[in-house]
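debug: dumping io for the single-chain case to check the tokenizer round-trip. Nothing else runs in this session.
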Amino acid sequence: MVEASTKPIKVLIAGLTADLHMSLKDMTFELPDIQVLDRVPSLSDAMEVAESRKHDVLMIEVPLEDGNYPPVFKQKVRDNTWPRVIAVAPREDAELLLQAAFLGAAAFVSRDTPLESLVSTIRRVALGEEPIEYNMVGNRGIASEVIRFLRGSNITPGMTGTPSPLSQQQHNVLKSVAQGMTNGEIATALGLKEQTVKNYMTAILKRVGARDRAQAVVFALNYGWITLDPRFP
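debug: decoded output
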């Protein structure tokens, strides 16, 4: 676990379960560096509270129930005029990880993360670290590439009405790429040959004008051609 900070850390929890809040509160009761552990029911409430109490870390749930993140929230996070964000998800998932990255989250954890690890993450984020960059490796490497690309971008997904140049199958392939799937996994999932998937990717890069898979995913998310939320096709 990361050592206690010399400066007390003020934490605000938004939209997560009362059980998680109480468990964290019980654990941090005797930790001198976790000074405040407040909880509010929604992100909109958190935005009001954070303005007045100047928290250091904000823990939010992804995805939000209504799937909506206020643009002003994302802008404040990216401008570093807001508490640093830890996104808490129901499971470790590349799509939810990308959603957290678009929000500017510094860390991404699942709900079943041990409390000791969660406290360590809070400390790391408060110190300015961004452990989200180390969440996805191996066959989820595309997610890490997209996160690195996002770190240098000011884009907001789905903000333009540019028509998609992709066919439906190309959309399916690119969305699979966004979920961290390899060519072989995509081929199995879509009932294609692996070489066919490669051919689709070559065509996608040409049509989108992207230099690589990661940039193609970011362009498609930015223009709303594919989405991060699994509830929407």
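debug: round-trip ok. Strands lie at 9-14, 34-40, 57-61, 84-89, 107-110.
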